[in-house]
Specification:
The protein has about 130 residues and is mainly beta. The chain has helices at about 1-5, 120-125, and strands at about 25-30, 35-40, 40-45, 55-60, 60-65, 70-75, 85.
């Protein structure tokens, strides 16, 4: 009774928004297989982030992965277990990787050992100057 008389009139409408939002924020380290583990599933991340810590936001049926505040990957959340969700673009630039089969790990082709995995321009940027 007291709620109906005194407090109910002070409440404001939510304008069609649900009363709460279910969201989880996690921190994960990108593994050597270019993926992060969430709920016993693996979600791919760009290969250049191997070894880095990333923020994972699970909400609204999506798994969003952020690094340094920038979104680097988005996947539909899977309901199963031990599944591997892959975006082939995350492996672009890796020498020896052939087109992966959907849901499977990328296959390695038998190619000669690469001399460099990155263009020289990236090494120049990291060193902060051009090559002399």
């Amino acid at each position: 009774m007291r709620f109906q008389r005194e407090e109910a009139s002070a409440l404001k409408a939510l304008d069609g928004r649900p009363p709460f939002r279910q969201m989880r924020e996690l921190v994960r380290r990108v593994q050597a297989d270019c993926a992060v583990a969430v709920d016993a599933n693996s979600y791919s991340v760009p290969w250049r982030l191997i070894g880095e810590s990333v923020q994972v936001v699970v909400a609204d049926g999506r798994v969003r992965i952020l690094h340094a505040g920038q979104e680097v990957a988005v996947h539909a959340e899977t309901t199963g277990r031990r599944q591997r969700i892959i975006d082939p673009a995350h492996f672009h630039g890796v020498t020896g990787v052939t087109r992966p089969v959907t849901g499977a790990a990328p296959a390695l082709a038998t190619l000669p050992e690469p001399a460099l995995l990155r263009p020289l321009a990236e090494y120049e940027c990291a060193a902060g100057r051009g090559w002399s």
